[in-house]
């Protein structure tokens, strides 16, 4: 894809009342004495922190932004210079400046790139709540040891494996069949994880400018993947609370009709971030909508194994399909470990053939060792998942108790599964909270990352995939960050010399 | 991406003289009594075999094709029905029919999807020369055993690793430094292989309709990746033989100027398929061209470790760069094993930050286990590669000797490294040869797959990555297939009942 550019109007909208961001005197209504370029740089930095000005995207031209914001061209020049000097913008020969992070300090590669504030701060951010993922179960070591025993059978081949080893495809197919969805191995394509599966499907199923229905909120990397293939996410709100909590199926039907969406990406098995579950009646209705509107529904079951509350597990959505209208993607990353890059797509063999046809443009296959390890983990999944869900359950309790104690005005209604809750804040300060939180010892993903069009400033995703002690410390840190925001907005930016 | 459609004109051009393909009487100049739909189906099937009608691509509408070929609409309807019935075309609700392979028989997942002829034939194709890749060295088992020892340090983290474990990035950086190209770990991004690295780079560096210069011939999956991101490959011919053999640097310079290409993808370290090497003077000139034309040159070093003839290894192309005009991609797949999905990109930290920004739309990281195994392999690379190159050398000799014996009118001039030779046939029959070869016991990738616009019908890539005995049998099989083509073109297609 080409360098994307943020439009000046769109940036202005996201910036909102940028003159007062981080301004101590905001409550008093007085104008700060800070130069405009500092306030603007701070505003843009908040958007970068938050992911709303994504890495690699170009900012508007200086002239456009000056016109749109009604400030002098010199102000914009100084703003961009300040951001550039601190590594938030990079320039490439003959191209516009694009959004960046200051060069990351070398790290062990097993954690996501740190938030900027944490990198800049002397205080080390101790707890990273930007991801919902657990450490490996003890069986992981056994799984790799078993894989090591099995690998010699493959070492005599060239090893490149775009479709997946047959033993794993059989195991995944058997698992669907046991869940009530008869499946043959030739309906399974092994991928490098759910995200990779989604990307392959989007490449095959969407045309440029195609509409893709999404849950709103949903998983941020899915939104980015939809945009990166040139398609457009169409948000259908999940009702966050109350008796009608969950999916608005009439809304999905009418959005499908009105936008002529050909694809939907939904997470009905413990939606990320809310943890909500679609019931059987809703599944039947969803499949009917897919048929009626000729829309392919991609169902992401990454979280499906993480049932935390007692209920009868619904059938897989695809069990309600009459044809191939439902495509299912799964993953070993959440059920077992994220360091294992194995997922799968379940669909009809014809679509698998198509996916294989384009896969070689992206990668040449799934690592054999990880596939063999996954076979072992699936054989032991009952005990692994029972222990993992028990752990998540008590971590969730610890998180909810800590929130009730330290942040009693945040509203939290947990879903019946998954790895996170979707907390509602009393005021739309999620971005500012995420920006300042690292200074208090915690990294947060702000609500707007889980939606489009700047929604969800009142929400923040809180994963409970971390140990209880960490969660308690993280909540204290959030409370401290939240306290610092009220009435202040965020830490003010300083001029270059003390920036 | 949307379903791509082959234009009727383009299909007609690729089909060429389709009425006589596989026609016994061609030499006599008489028209076959075969119905036109059979001849046309056979022609299209040859293009599918050969990859020139790629999987997942839609054929032209019946009306368009009938008009373009000057045949009746009924002929096209029958042609498509025949292809559909045999699994070469699949239809999706509301969409055009797209090119497919007959549903693959379940296989062990470690081999590429078989050629169609092999699937259809009762005779099993015993030797697959469509790939250039070796089985694993004996050290592979040790590498995984060492990785198993090292994995516990990572099991306590969430494991998702988009940038790469620092120990591997250090090892890769050290290796470049030892080759004469000073490199820091923050210049290294670990990928899922060279193809994945190329795809990430194309996503970041190219705009839709951008021109990307390529060697011609070059690696087929690179051509497909360039097309899949919406860019256009611009072929610059490699001179195949004689004193000027190799890269035409003036041609590269003028193509870059004339097309305003912003990116080039070149394989100067044992070009795939030819095995050619660009010398130091050429490297300096290439870097100068990149600077002068502001073109980023992506240098694929996948084959760089496979030096077979005695010569002083040239410096990496990036050593001739003054800025960041040369980006290097590398891979463990050819040097060690394809079942290990590890590669890397070497560039400046700012571009790595950009690549990380879009990587999460494609996948969430490189498997930790495979990375740890790669560290072990790099530590032992001297002995592994010495053995591997010796093996390739004697396999190359065996291949050349067998060709001289059984196919003396094929011209073959091996390059100084890599895994394949680019054999020149006395007549433009590469596609027909690849189509009929499976019936004789060998699968071939026809010349046109390594180029654009239907070039290279006189060439075929012959890998020598296979054991000597296999290569000798494969050459006998090719000789038999080639013999069958002369004067016949290919095996004729039969009507549906005996198809």
Could you characterize what this model shows?
Two copies of one chain form a homodimer. With 499 residues, the first copy, chain A, is α/β, with parallel strands linked by helices. Chain A is 40% helix and 11% strand. Chain A has an eight-stranded mixed beta sheet with strand order 4-11-10-9-8-5-6-7, with helices on both faces. In chain A, helix 3 (62-69) packs across helix 4 (73-85) and helix 9 crosses helix 13. The first copy, chain A, is globular. Chains A and B meet through strand 2, helix 6, helix 7, helix 8 and helix 9 of A and strand 2, helix 6, helix 7, helix 8 and helix 9 of B.
Supply database-style keywords.
homodimer; 499 residues; alpha/beta; Arc Repressor Mutant, subunit A; Aspartate Aminotransferase, domain 1; Aspartate Aminotransferase, domain 2; 3 domains; 8-stranded mixed sheet; two-stranded antiparallel ribbon; 17 helices; globular; disordered C terminus
What is the CATH homology-level superfamily of the largest domain in chain A?
Answer: Type I PLP-dependent aspartate aminotransferase-like (Major domain)
CATH architecture of the largest domain in chain A: 3-Layer(aba) Sandwich
- Kindly report how far apart the N and C termini of chain A lie: 34 Å
Q: What are the low-pLDDT stretches of chain A, counting only 5+ consecutive residues below 50?
A: 22-32, 103-125, 488-499
Highest-level CATH class of the largest domain in chain A: Alpha Beta
Structural class of chain A: alpha/beta
Residue fraction in strands of chain A: 5-15%
Shape of chain A: globular
- The oligomerization state is homodimer
Name the average pLDDT of chain A. 87
Number of domains of chain A: 3
Task: Report the biggest beta sheet of chain A as strand number plus sense, adding barrel if it closes.
Answer: 8 strands, mixed
Going across the major beta sheet of chain A, what is the strand order? Answer: 4-11-10-9-8-5-6-7
Helix content of chain A: 25-40%
Number of helices of chain A: 17
CATH fold-level assignment of the largest domain in chain A: Aspartate Aminotransferase, domain 2
E-strand count of chain A: 14
